[in-house]
Amino acid sequence: MVNQIPVPQAKYKLLTDVRQPRWEKKILCLVLVSLILGILFVPRAWIGIVILRSVSVETLNIETVENAKIVTWLRRARMYAESTKENQNADRNNSISSPQHFYTNSSKQIIVCYYSVSSNLNTLWELNPSHIDPNLCTHIIVGFASVVNCSLDLGSNLSVYKDVIALKKLQPELRVMISAGGSNELHLSFSEMVKNYSNRKRFIKSVVNVTKTFGFDGLDLDWEFPAWLGADEREKINFTQLLEELRREFYHTKETLILSISVAAPQAIVDQSYDVVEIAKYVDFVNLMSYDYHFFVWYYPITGLNAPLFPRAAESGYLSTLNINFSAQYWLSKGMPREKLIIGIPTYGHSYELDNPSNHGLLAPANGFGKLGHAGFTSYTEICEFLQNGAKTVFEEESKVPYAYKDKEWISYDDVTSVYYKATWVRANSFGGAMIFSLNVDDWNDTCKFNESFPLTRTITKVLRYQED
Question: CA 119, CA 144: separation in Å to the nearest integer?
Answer without folding.
Answer: 12
